[in-house]
Amino acid sequence: MNVLYCGDTGISRGVLVSILSLLMNGRKHYDAKKNVMIDDTKMEQPIYNIYIMTIRYDGVKPFTEKTARFLDKLVKGYNSKSFVKLIDATEVFVKNLPSKNMGSYFTPCSMLRLYVDKVSEIARLDRILYLDYDVVCRGDISEFYNMNLDGVEAAGVLDIYGRRWYHYHGLFKQDYMNSGVMLFNVSECLKSDMFGKAVRLCAGRWMMLADQAALNKTIERRILVDRKYNEQEERPRADTALHHFSNNFKFWPFFRVQKVKPFEKEKVHNVLGIHEYDDILNKYEKLVDEL
After folding, report:
1. How far apart are CA 70 and CA 165, in angstroms?
2. How far is residue 43's CA from residue 29's CA, in Å, rounded to a whole number?
């Protein structure tokens, strides 16, 4: 399973939790009768080929080789065929700057997934699953990962907020995907120059949530999958396979943006009332100082 994370050193803690969740929960299956996730110990530990793209540019503190080596050792402890590889995408990024969106709320690293086609090690892959650093795995995602993508550039889940306001391929059609979890058919994206179009769009036009907007505008052929593969609400459902700790809007007793990340154990407990990830977070706390 090819997995991609993108960012600077600031995502290290989140990536550690996310990878631990893949390793510790990747064999769990949803039991509809019991309405719970059941660990299938007979299932072989999945092989994860994990790529992390980073850059050294204009004050950005890149994801470090030391952390990548530590994560590589960690995943090999679960399956010797798995690996973590750090990719420095500075050269391709500088040659193709998303000029109009360099001063956005997010760091330039938020747009790195748009450069997949320019990184030979990833461009040669059949498919790759992009995950934000705040996505936690709750169960087996192999059915999603191995789905039929013939003639399709990407698969993903509707954005819980944007789907109501953005309609790129029909005035009344809900097709605006959240970009925190996206399964790319790399070969099809190369044929259509989807990534290239997205970068050029970011270079020439300012957009809110530029990377997500660019992807939604340039992905012409997509598959929308069940929300269990990118649950963006603050609490997961029983069948949730990927829980995305995205920002949530709260309106009572006053409007605010609620930000809780999975490695913030106290907030996960006290704000969200979630304790089911404690086995992962306890493991995280033992390892985080080694990043």
Report:
1. 42
2. 10
What is the reported pLDDT for 137? 98
Question: Are residues 139 and 23 in contact, defined by beta-carbon separation less than 8 angstroms?
Answer: no
Location of structure tokens 């092989």: 47
- Run means of pLDDT, 10 residues per run, the chain, 291 residues: 96 98 96 93 93 92 97 98 98 91 73 95 97 97 98 96 66 84 98 96 86 92 97 95 88 78 97 96 97 90
Strand partners, 257: 249
Task: Name residue, tokens 């999603």.
Answer: 144
- Give the residue from 28, 263, 233 showing the smallest Cα distance to 138: 28
For the chain, which residues make up each domain, given as ranges? 2-290
Distances from the Cα of 281 to the Cαs of 16, 82, 181, 208, 285, in angstroms? 10, 22, 21, 33, 6
Pick the CATH number of 2-290 from 1.20.1070.10, 3.40.50.300, 3.90.550.10, 3.30.1050.10: 3.90.550.10
Are 50 and 87 within 8 A, CB to CB?
A: no
> Which residue type does 206 have?
W
Strand boundaries in 89-187, DSSP class E: 127-131, 135-137, 154-158, 177-185
DSSP symbols for 207-256: -TTHHHHHHHHH--SEEE--GGGSB-SSS--TT-SEEE---EEE-SSS-E
| Count of C-beta atoms within a 10 Å radius of residue 193 | 13
Do 249 and 161 touch, CB atoms closer than 8 A?
yes
The H or E element spanning position 189 is: helix 186-192
Q: What is the pLDDT of residue 104?
A: 64
What's the whole-model pTM score?
Answer: 0.94
Q: What residues contact 27, with CB distance under 8 A and at least 6 apart?
A: 39, 40, 41, 43, 45, 46, 140
Locus of tokens 């994801």: 63
CB atoms within 10 A of CB 65: 11
The reported pLDDT for the residue numbered 168 is 62
